[in-house]
Amino acid sequence: MKFRTSICSATPSALGRRSIDVSRCCALASCCAFVLAAACDSKVAGGTDFVFTGGHVFTGDSANPWAQAIAIAGDRIVAVGTDSAITALAGSRTQRIALAGRLVVPGFNDAHAHIGAGIGGVTFHAVAGSTPDPAIATVLVALKAAAKKAQRNAWLVTDVGERVLGDPRARRTLLDSVVSNHPVMLRGWTGHGAVLNTAALHVTGLDTASDVEGGWQERDAARKPTGRVDEYALYDVARAVEVARGQNPTTAAFRAYDLLSASLGITSTQIMATNFSPSLFSHIERMGVLRSRQRIIPFEMTGVGRRESLWVGAKPSNMLTTISGAKWIL
C-alpha cells in the first residue's frame, strides 16, 4: 500500500511535480482538512513513522494556512507545524524526508473518471483537439487513410461532434462507400452517440438487435438500422467488445491511470464502471494495480425491457476500494 502526497516546486520557474511514496496508506483528505495536532504531544513523540520537513505545507486552516513540516504515524497525519517542532517528534525509526522548499497540498480527488482500454483497433484523428467537431467530408478522408494502414478486420475509431452526429448523410451507407472491410465507429466525444458502418453493426449484433432500455437506434422506413446509435444501445455493445478483449488491456489501462494520477497528486478517484464488469474489476484488484483510494460507481447495462444487476452484492477485496451508488443515463 502506498501513501501519496503531491509535492511541487515552490518557485514559479520550476514547475516540476513528483510523488513521494512511503510504505503506509494515509488518506489525505481532498477537502484539505488537516488536523493541526500539538507538536509537543508526548503521545506522538517517538511513535512517528515519517516526518516531512523544509516545505511549504498548505493546511486549509484559515487561521494557520501554511506550515513547514508534517509528521505521520500509521495512517494519520498527527502533527503539522514548524521544522523544529516536527523534527522533535522523530524517533530512531522515523523516516525523514526533506522537501527542499516544495509545495505540499492534500491529495486531490478525481470526481469523475472513466478508465478502460476501449474497443481496440486503430484510433485515428480527423482534426486535432480533445473536443473535435469535423465535417463528415474531413472524417471520410482520414478514415480512408487509416484503413490503408490498418491490419485486417481492425476497428477504426475516431471522435466526432454534432456536425457528424447531426448530419443525416453520416450513416452506414456513406461509411460503407469508403470502408466496408473494417468495423468503423465515429464516436461522439461527449460519450453520447455514434455512427457505425455495416461491418461494425454486424460485429456487435446491432444489425439484428431490438432497442434496449434507455437505448436507441435510428432506423429507415424499412426498419433497418442506419448506423446511428445512442446511449445504452452503444454502451452495451462497447462494454461487451472491451470485456471480450480479455483482462490484460483493461488492467494496463488501470495501471496507466494509477501512474498518471500519482504524478498529478490525485489520491482518490470516483470511477464510473462503464468499461468493465465486476469480475474484471476483481482481477484488477488482485493484480495490485490500484494503490490509491477509489470508489467504484456501478453502471448497469440494460436489455430489452430489463436492466442488468451484475453489480448487486459486489464487494471490494481491499481496504482502499468502496463500491456504492449508481450511474444512470436518462
Distance between the termini: 38 Å
Low-confidence stretches: 8-42
Oligomer: single chain
Strand order of the largest sheet: 11-12-13-14-16-15
Contiguous helical run count: 8
Q: List how many beta strands DSSP finds.
A: 21
Specify the biggest β-sheet.
6 strands, mixed
Q: Gyration radius, to the nearest Å?
A: 25 Å
What is the N-to-C order of secondary-structure elements (H for helix, E for strand)? Answer: EEEEEEEHEEEEHEHHEEHEEHHEHEEEE
Amount of helix: 10-25%
Look at the structure and give the mean pLDDT.
86
How much of the sequence is in beta strands? Answer: 25-35%
Structural class: alpha/beta
Overall spatial form? elongated
Write the layout of secondary structure elements.
Layout: E1 3-8, E2 17-22, E3 50-53, E4 56-58, E5 66-67, E6 69-73, E7 76-81, H1 83-87, E8 95-98, E9 103-105, E10 108-113, E11 122-123, H2 136-149, E12 156-160, H3 162-165, H4 172-178, E13 184-188, E14 194-196, H5 198-204, E15 215-219, E16 225-231, H6 232-244, H7 247-263, E17 266-273, H8 278-286, E18 293-298, E19 302-303, E20 306-307, E21 321-323
Parallel strand pairs: 3-8, 4-9, 10-17, 11-12, 12-13, 17-18, 18-21
Antiparallel strand pairs: 1-2, 1-9, 3-6, 4-5, 6-7, 13-14, 14-16, 15-16, 19-20
